[in-house]
Design goal:
Blueprint: H1 3-17, E1 31-33, E2 38-41, E3 46-48, E4 55-56, H2 68-79, H3 84-99, E5 107-111, H4 117-125, E6 133-138, H5 141-147, E7 154-158, E8 171-177, H6 183-189, E9 190-199, H7 207-213, H8 217-220, H9 225-234, H10 254-261
Parallel strand pairs: 4-7, 5-6, 5-8, 6-7, 8-9
Antiparallel strand pairs: 1-2, 2-3
Helix pairs in contact: 2-10, 3-4
The structure holds S-adenosylmethionine (SAM).
S-adenosylmethionine binds near residues 74 and 162.
Length: about 270
């Protein structure tokens, strides 16, 4: 049996176990996996599982702002450990959150997960990570295609943040890392005591590179105060952390890192 088929069977079982998380993006009904491995609702709206084991739950065709090439570049940058200190901070927050719960199992959604490296690294770094359910969502099929290359037990979905195909109060933790947000949807799918971990680039994010590449101040000076203020209006900010670290970029990584710079202007 090929690796893809084995993986598809595993992910199908994972979705079956967690079918209560899903709602039909067309009619909002409950969903289940049918005998031909599609995720369907009572009204027979049907969403197929791709060979790689992800599910496309978009209801209309959407052209992504980001190219496949950009996601591949980001994948290389993430694999090189560029975001490791950030992932360690995120997993500390989640581990502390779980330590204060009665339940030892939580559901984690990465909203705008891109090529999936962050969620994969969170899964690998969390204590008792096998207890949890992990779901990654992105509007770009190219990004989810890359995300689903890894062999982890993660449910990858192509879907729109503005219309999440999940039940109300389905998730304990929402990650929203360097991505756009939809706070009314986040607040809907978040459990009452749940947390949103939002990551925005700080003023100095990639500053050394931006200073070299751009003359224009619009690109060299970076502020996300509007994004933070909006987040504060829509959710309660319990804690805000500045994470500063330096990373020595190998020459070979530079072209991929440069490609990813502009992608962060849309967070
Ligand atoms: C700057 S990238 C960050 C991706 C990833 N979190 C990371 O840090 O590598 C922003 C991501 O948000 C996704 N995105 C943008 N609008 C979206 C929407 N309406 N629904 C779902 N994902 C969306 C993009 O496809 C892209 O993958």
């Amino acid at each position: 049996m090929s690796i893809n088929i084995k993986k598809k069977i595993r992910i199908k079982e994972l979705i079956k176990l967690n079918k209560y998380l899903f709602k039909c993006p067309i009619c909002n009904e409950d969903m289940f996996i049918n005998e031909i491995d599609s995720l369907v609702c009572e009204s027979n709206h049907s969403f197929d599982m791709a060979r790689k084991g992800y599910i496309n739950l978009l209801t209309s065709k959407i052209t992504s702002f980001y190219s496949k090439e950009l996601f591949e570049a980001r994948h290389t940058v993430c694999n090189a450990g560029f975001y490791t200190p950030l992932i360690i901070e995120i997993t500390k927050i989640i581990d502390d959150y779980i330590a204060n719960l009665y339940s030892e199992k939580i559901n984690i959604l990465d909203a705008g997960c891109g090529e999936g490296s962050h969620l994969y690294s969170v899964l690998q770094t969390l204590k008792n990570s096998q207890n949890n359910t992990y779901v990654g969502v992105d509007i770009s099929k190219d990004s989810i295609n890359i995300a689903s290359r890894n062999n982890a037990d993660i449910i990858w979905c192509v879907a729109d943040l503005a219309k999440l195909p999940f039940q109300t109060r389905a998730f304990d933790v929402i990650l929203n890392i360097l991505s756009p947000a939809n706070y009314s949807e986040f607040n809907r799918v978040l459990y009452d005591e749940g947390i949103i971990i939002k990551v925005v680039p700080g003023n100095n994010y990639l500053k050394e590179l931006r200073d070299i590449i751009y003359d224009n101040k619009e690109f060299t000076e970076y502020s996300n105060s509007n994004v933070i203020n909006h987040f504060n209006e829509m959710s309660i900010i319990h804690t805000m952390k500045n994470i500063n670290y330096r990373y020595d970029v190998r020459k070979e990584l530079l072209p991929d890192l440069i490609k990813t710079i502009n992608s962060n202007k849309r967070c």
